[in-house]
Structure formats: structure tokens, C-alpha cells
Structure to design on (334 residues):
């Protein structure tokens, strides 16, 4: 990400504080740094809640309200979501923008209205300026554009709308990116450094295994097993084109997003748990697909209830433990 004040969340916080100053609730000349930090963290918390609501809308569009509620509950009770929503960091903003882009993309898949494609690209631009790995949001967009059977002229029109939306999103999210390219390149180069005392020394496959291990622990054993089931079912339905059951487009695009981000972060010299965090809501889309397909194979209701409880118990238990640990106080204000 770019140094302050060039990244998107800095503009959001700055704009909100200036609005408070305009209506007379704060004074820019006297406001303390601690008050600014508090406002920034409150806005980040709001973005965390918003990401859950957008995930609900996505899963509701792809599946049903009940599965949307399950995925949102799993996501919002995830300890990493809670932790990052408490801190003024870009991961939550990045994730929220990618989810909104994904929702626009699903609307485009349904109706092929270029307005939705432009909206999807616009929010990818905002995601990129929050943290440049937001570029991964272009992968499902490109796949949709390539897979739609349209005339060359219509494809060119959709591509033009995508480019325009992306450029506008980049400029709105961070004017510095275009007005001070030298500084932007310097910041990106710094983030691409290959050495860190606690996060280097692994190969691509070692990074890959490291991320899988970390996030399987975050999801819990049973949720991870249902995730694997979802991946297997999705691949099976894709291979078996004549199958009566089809994997929804939302599931396939979510799976592509997760795999693309996993490959991208594993290819880097450093490894940080938070780098793969934007994939979490998309993982839960695949999880609920695996859950849906698994319970459809179960004949008794008590087995369905047991599976649901097992999926929820680990995340909820860890959330309670994390919340209890926070009772000791938090000295970090950034």
C-alpha cells in the first residue's frame, strides 16, 4: 500500500473528519491525534460490518437467505475479521471493495448490463488503491468477459467500460497514484522488498502450505472439510457438463478469486497472514456451497444439525476466547 495520505482509507477518514469539522462537531485546529485514531478505527469497524452485509447480499443472490445468514455469521465471528476491524489498516477496506465489485460482477452476469461491469471495475480500482493486491479482483472480471458469447463489438464495448471504470476508481481512490507516479512506484517497490527478519526464507510451495495451514486453523477442522467438499463438488460439476446439478457462477468465480490470490501471495518473497485475508469471504462462499451439497446427501435432520453446529463451534469458541483476551486492554492505536 502507499504511504499516508495516498491510500484510499486515508482519504475516507480525512473526508469524514473534514465533514465533522464543517458541521461543527470537531475542530481541525485542535483535534488530537488520539481522536483522529479513534475516528479512523470506528470507520474501519463500520467497513468490517459493511463487508459482512455485502457478503450476505452475494450469498443470498447465489443461494438463499439461510445460507447467506450462515456465511455472514461465520465471517463476522472470524477472529481475524474482528481483529482487523479494530485496527486502522487497509485489509478490511480492500476486502469490502472486492466484495462490492464481486456483487456488481454477479449482477452483470445475470443481465449483461455494462453499467454493472463498470461498477465492478470501479471498485477494483478502489481496492487496488487501498492495497495493490486488490488487482486480483480483475481476474474474475476478465474471465467473465472472455466467457460471454457476444459479438466482437459488444465485447469491445464491455472492455472499454471496464477500463474506464478501473481508471476512475484508481483516480478516486488515490489521486496521488496518477499525480505523483514517482512516489507511487517508490512505495510499491518498498512493499516488494524480499527480506524481512520474520517473514522470508520460504519457497513458493512452502509459502503455499504455510497459508493453507494458517487459514485452515482459522476456519476450523470441520469448516475446512466442508470447504474441501465445496471445491470437489464445484470441480465435479464443471467437469461433468451433463450433470443435472450445476455449480453457480458465483461459486466458480469465488473459487477462482481464492486460488488466484493464493498463488499470487505465495509467489512473493515474504509471507504475512494478513496478505491472504481478502480471500476469507470468498472462501466462505465455497464453504456454504459445500455445506449445501453435503447436507443434501444426508438423510436425517439430526446429522444436518450436527454438521451445522460443528462448522460453527470452532469459530464461535475462538471468537469468545479472543474477546476475553481483549479484556486485558489494547495499547495499539494505529
Amino acid at each position: 500500500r502507499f504511504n499516508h495520505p495516498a491510500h484510499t482509507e486515508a482519504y475516507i477518514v480525512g473526508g469524514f473528519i473534514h465533514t465533522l469539522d464543517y458541521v461543527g462537531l470537531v475542530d481541525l485546529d485542535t483535534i488530537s491525534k488520539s481522536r483522529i485514531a479513534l475516528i479512523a478505527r470506528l470507520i474501519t469497524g463500520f467497513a468490517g460490518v459493511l463487508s459482512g452485509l455485502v457478503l450476505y447480499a452475494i450469498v443470498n443472490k447465489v443461494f438463499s437467505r439461510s445460507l447467506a445468514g450462515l456465511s455472514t455469521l461465520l465471517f463476522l465471528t472470524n477472529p481475524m475479521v474482528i481483529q482487523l476491524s479494530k485496527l486502522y489498516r487497509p485489509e478490511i477496506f480492500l476486502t469490502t471493495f472486492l466484495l462490492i465489485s464481486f456483487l456488481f460482477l454477479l449482477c452483470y452476469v445475470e443481465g449483461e448490463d455494462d453499467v454493472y461491469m463498470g461498477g465492478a471495475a470501479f471498485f477494483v480500482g478502489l481496492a487496488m488503491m487501498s492495497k495493490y493486491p486488490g488487482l486480483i479482483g480483475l481476474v474474475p472480471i476478465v474471465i467473465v468477459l472472455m466467457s460471454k458469447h457476444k459479438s466482437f463489438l459488444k465485447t469491445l464495448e464491455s472492455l472499454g467500460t471496464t477500463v474506464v471504470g478501473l481508471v476512475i476508481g484508481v483516480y478516486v481512490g488515490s489521486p496521488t497514484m496518477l499525480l505523483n507516479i514517482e512516489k507511487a512506484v517508490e512505495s510499491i517497490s518498498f512493499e516488494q522488498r524480499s527480506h524481512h527478519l520474520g517473514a522470508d526464507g520460504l519457497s513458493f510451495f512452502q509459502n503455499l502450505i504455510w497459508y493453507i495451514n494458517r487459514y485452515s486453523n482459522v476456519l476450523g477442522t470441520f469448516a475446512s472439510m466442508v470447504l474441501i467438499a465445496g471445491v470437489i463438488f464445484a470441480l465435479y460439476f464443471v467437469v461433468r457438463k451433463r450433470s443435472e446439478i450445476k455449480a453457480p457462477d458465483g461459486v466458480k468465480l469465488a473459487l477462482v478469486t481464492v486460488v488466484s490470490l493464493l498463488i499470487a501471495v505465495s509467489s512473493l518473497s515474504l509471507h504475512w497472514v494478513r496478505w491472504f485475508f481478502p480471500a476469507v469471504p470468498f472462501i466462505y462462499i465455497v464453504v456454504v456451497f459445500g455445506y449445501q451439497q453435503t447436507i443434501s446427501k444426508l438423510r436425517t435432520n439430526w446429522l444436518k444439525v450436527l454438521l451445522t453446529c460443528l462448522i460453527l463451534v470452532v469459530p464461535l469458541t475462538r471468537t469468545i476466547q479472543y474477546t476475553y483476551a481483549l479484556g486485558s486492554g489494547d495499547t495499539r492505536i494505529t
Notes: The mean pLDDT is 81. DSSP finds 15 helices and no strands in the chain. The two ends are 15 Å apart (CA to CA).
